[in-house]
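ok trying this again, last paste got cut off
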Amino acid sequence: MSAKKVAVLAPVAWRTPPRQYGAWETVAGNIAEGLVERGWDVTLFATKDSVTRARLHAVIERGYEEDRSIDPKVAEYRHISEVFEQASQFDLIHSHYDFMALAYSRLVRTPVLTTIHGFSSPQIMPVYEKYGDGYFVSISDSDRAPGLNYVATVYNGIDLALYPFQEQCGDDLIFLGRIHPDKGVHLAIEVARKSGQTLVIAGIVQDEAYFRDLVEPHIDGRQIQYVGPVGVDGKNELFKRAKALLHLNTIPERFGLVLVEANAAGVPVIAMDLGSCREVIEEGRTGFLVNDVDSAIQALSRLSEIQRNACRKRVEGCFSVQTMVEAYEDVYAKIFALEGMNV
């Protein structure tokens, strides 16, 4: 199996791995690195400034979110077409490029596996429906659509070396993620204000009006702080300060990479019980699942019940790069068998 050649198609919104935000790029990069570690012949299709031990193939200089002079659509189609024009060189194309790459999938003989990182809108579903007989992986059991040929659910994995265990509990509540109504930053602020605790917010502002109207008015630099986007080092600084991560999502969570990152550092998570949060967080052991602001406040009084080392151990067992890559190896083997390819 180690002789098989795999093309990993990462998005080009951000560098792989991203400097700050970029969950899809993070996962694609982790898969490429993990496969290389296990002896696979891997080519990563990503931006030219990406960092990888795999072969890097790139036609886009920088992520279009990092360089606004780049037209996103032009970059995406130049990038996606590149891997499919070279499809015959690979035994498998592993796409992390949502619905767009599917339009090329029937034009090549190489099997294409699509990891679906989430359905951004009902409007994209006709594309998935058209290509529903392809090969798909979901990142949680809760984030599946009917009619698609799912080979497996494979949970996202993180590089545990990037998130050292923090033995000591901090004093602050933290929020990490996109500043967007979906992520419930305003609810985290309400929890902090009602409980009289400090909240530190970090992340890119993805909805300017939401930030201006519902977040910024509460930022006082003391009880409610906003530190902007952060990379891995910035996350770890926040984990040192954290008594808990608040993740009060207002829509079903697809996976929630930050939940795993926080748990890896030993930080308990208080998350809304929507979507995959129930799969990622073990109730009463690595955090608490809640239904509203009041129950989130009640959960704060129970944080002493969480053993920080239990949070770390769960990530080691369920959400490491090694666990993820081993699961993808099983998926690849199933596809090769179905395609009549020697494994």
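PB: full thing came through this time. Residues 5-157+320-338 form a domain with the Rossmann fold fold (CATH 3.40.50.2000).
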